[in-house]
Specification:
This protein is an alpha+beta fold and 327 residues long. The chain contains ten helices and nine strands. Bound molecules: glycine.
């Protein structure tokens, strides 16, 4: 299955306009990079620009989470699910539908299009959100609905901007494969994998921390393409999926040593970072002592350091670019 196409077509069939991915560097001084699918639509959520027709959209947005509020850089290579560069599938409602339809669409897509088994699925809601809890109960047993606080179930794009309580869908990869003390719902382990975040956009946070209601309650969702691809391919790590293995195999060729998961963090770091570096350079970001260019420099340096750990002493990153383009 082409997951991007399946997602976009599903939401198009529900009346959403398909919007191409926006650039990684947003026209927004409050953010280093586009870090979520909603970023290009920020000013529609806040009412600064009028609602489009139709007021519902869907996209597959390239994102970078390195530097700034959502910064996954140090985790990359050492978990099965973090990336500096990734693609986020999303559906957006600018005051058109709200919690009920967002939840119903998500459930339909996950269980009827992706056909993920229901007995592997769990959801979370904000601890104060009885409405979302009751809506989820129409689809899933209440024992599978967890309530968490702001840390897990309140989403915001940055220190300022649109935000709101959220509801996440988790996929249980199985206790037979994951059994560290962190492998419980809400823990940091990889067993319960968050695949989709439904944000009930209700507020705009200003720089003094104040929350002002948005003109209309809205929806912003984000599903990680790499995570869903791994699940659909029966892999326990995003890096084992067809999005990353061809890159990891190229790194293995460059260093002349076969890849093994347990000792393979450096291969994974390089296969992640080459995607960020390639996309950022292609879109015009250049190396710098500060700001976005400094983050780009840090990502490149981290990749090269891991190349050294693998024994690669010559320049090598450029040799992976063709594979990134092909993938
Ligand atoms: N905007 C939703 C998310 O990034 O999870």
């Amino acid at each position: 299955m082409d997951i991007r196409e399946a997602y976009l077509n599903f939401f198009a069939s529900k009346g959403h306009e398909i919007i191409p991915s926006a650039p990684l560097v947003p026209n927004d001084a409050t953010l280093l990079f586009t870090n979520a699918g909603m970023v290009p639509f920020k000013s529609i959520f806040t009412g600064e620009v009028p609602r489009p027709t139709p007021p519902i959209r869907t996209s597959c947005q390239t994102c970078i989470r390195a530097g700034g509020k959502h910064n996954d850089l140090d985790n990359v290579g050492y978990t099965a699910r973090h990336h500096t560069f990734f693609e986020m599938l999303g559906n957006f409602s600018f005051g058109e539908y709200f919690k009920k339809d967002a939840i119903a669409y998500a459930w339909e897509f996950v269980t009827q299009v992706l056909k993920l088994p229901k007995d592997r699925l769990y959801v979370t809601v904000h601890e104060s959100d009885d409405e979302a809890f009751a809506l989820w109960e129409q689809h899933i047993a209440k024992e599978r609905i967890y309530r968490f606080g702001d840390h897990d179930n309140f989403w915001q794009m940055g220190d300022t901007g649109p935000c709101g309580p959220c509801s996440e869908i988790f996929y249980d990869q199985g206790g037979e494969h994951f059994n560290t003390p962190e492998d419980y719902m809400g823990g940091d382990g990889d067993r319960f994998l968050e695949i989709w975040n439904l944000v009930f956009m209700q507020y705009e946070r200003s720089s003094d921390g104040k929350l002002t209601p948005l003109p209309k309650p809205s929806i912003d969702t984000g599903m990680g393409l790499e995570r869903v691809t791994a699940i659909m391919e029966g892999k326990f790590s995003n890096y084992d999926s067809s999005l990353f293995m061809p890159l990891i195999e190229e790194v293995a060729k460059l260093c002349g040593k076969p890849y093994a998961y347990e000792s393979g963090a450096s291969y994974r770091v390089i296969s992640d970072h080459i995607r960020s570096v390639t996309f950022l350079l292609a879109q015009g970001t250049t190396f710098d002592k500060e700001g976005r260019g400094y983050v780009l420099r840090r990502i490149l340096r981290r990749a090269i350091r891991h190349g050294y750990l693998l024994g690669i002493k010559e320049p090598f990153m450029y040799r992976l670019v063709d594979k990134v383009c092909e993938l």
